[in-house]
Fold this protein.
Amino acid sequence: MNDYTTVVSWGETLTTAFQNLWIKSLSYLPELFGAIVLLVIGLILASLLGKLARQVISYARIDAIFERIGLSREVDRFGVQFSFSGLVGWLVKWFFILATLIAVADTLNIPQVTAFLTDVALYIPNVVAAIIILAIGVVVGRFVSEIIERTVKASHVAKTVATTLATIAKWAIVVFAFMAALVQLGVARSLIQILFTGFVAMLALAGGLAFGLGGRDQAGRVIDSLSKELSRRE
């Protein structure tokens, strides 16, 4: 009799547990269905808005501006097909995808996922700023490189020297921009600052040595002429 009562008690316990699980599952279904609908609609809208942003930028012929200033060619050298309209479209698309995922996680009451995705979404402006810094660095580096190369060639200096100086100047600016972009992204800021300081000191030392050694004879002639002029006046 006791065994029978125990079995019945276990059966009632299991039945109650399954009933509670079924009731909770049924009560959770509306939220799950709403989250699925929200996810589908959000992904469709994100794709459409990304395409719309890309078409608007392309229609405004902003890509042609970047090709004209040489940014597209410089980026292509790294094996990356650059398109400003494509970049904007990609950023818009993923921004709305993240916004949709945040809404879905909030609907399903998953605060940890919501907080993580919110942090990712808030990090996007830093990525955009880093891309802009790199783009400006590449454009300015190319511009300065062309000016230095033309100026040095106009001074009747060897072509290899002009090319070398122009290349060094361009890559120095690109490296500066790359370091600034890493700082903007918050990647090892203290280490980047140390490397940046060391790089500046290296360039200053190299420039000083190059100027000192290269202009030593000219400086000697200038000083000698000044000495003779002073002696003549005396």
